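Field: sequence (string)
Field: structure_tokens (string)

Example rows 1 and 2, in order.
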Amino acid sequence: MNISDWPISKIMQLPDEAFGRRFFISCMMKVSGESTVWDISELGFPEICVIWEMQLLTWQTAGARTEFRVALGDHLPTTAAEVDVLEPVFPGLGQTGAEPRVITSKDWQGFVARKLRLPIRASGRRLVVEFTNTFTPATVMSCILTVSSIPKDIPSWFG
């Protein structure tokens, strides 16, 4: 059954298995010393998609604190000001302040959000992540999103 003209609110009521194959969109960087680096994913998001899970992971020395900012963009930023004007992937998540907000991790904590089922209109943009290491030793940081596209066809017994 063709559901391409259904509103997103109705599509999101379908069971999980109607959304098909899930895939990862990710960024990973090694940050040496106290510094900020930026990364942009190789893969772009589908026009409209669903984020099922987010993982912010760090491999760092005890006592280290890292910061992430997660946004949608078309190019690799080279300054924090360039990230300031990007659309956040998760509005309102992180420390109170300007979007995209800062999400912190300390001592290997990381941050995992499961069972999100969050629809977004990404319009083909890619994942942009700002990684900040506030400790001298090198830290490896990654942001991994589990994503699927929005179904356009479903078996008639779903609808």
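Row 2 begins here:
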Amino acid sequence: MRSTRLLRLLIAAALLPLAGCPEEKEILTHGIVKLEMRRSQNQASNPYLGTARVLITMTYQECLSDLYEANPDLRQNGREGEAIFGGYDKEGEGWSDRLCEPGTTSAQADCSIMSIVQQLSMVEQLTVEYGIAGELEGRVLPFGPLPTKETAGCLDPIVRIAIGGAKGYNGEGAEIWTGSANPPEAVTDQGGELVVEAARSDD
């Protein structure tokens, strides 16, 4: 009887660390900027009604431009870039699948990624195309992937929303709103959101 009880105690002690260990947080080389979608001050009604698709373009500032110049493997068409910008099937961070996963950020819009396109000639920028289901006003769109400060090797991996870099389209493909941000710059994984204010294109 005593030996049986001792055996049970030993088994319980062995299983306790397994049951009590929290999951280790995944360390990522890239992160996001959170875009909070609001109406502009001159909009009496919700400008986002009918939005089926959103196109956001942000330009890389000096730190990130220098990073991609010095590290071609990290570019979207580079040896490491495919696994960063692509889906989980590429066995990397898989941002085309990760970006719109539920719970990526709070107050997140119901979105899906249609495309992520990096441009490094002439204007250095990243464009993300989202499919939208449901409400967008007051919701947050995660934008990325963007190198973290550890990956970039600087304290300010800054991106700036491009002029005309926030647009919304209805299901027929017609542009229905444009947006801007003030201030227009953000840093990868900063605490707060970059506020995008939209107005109807036909106003």
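free_text_note (row 2): The longest strand covers residues 158-169.
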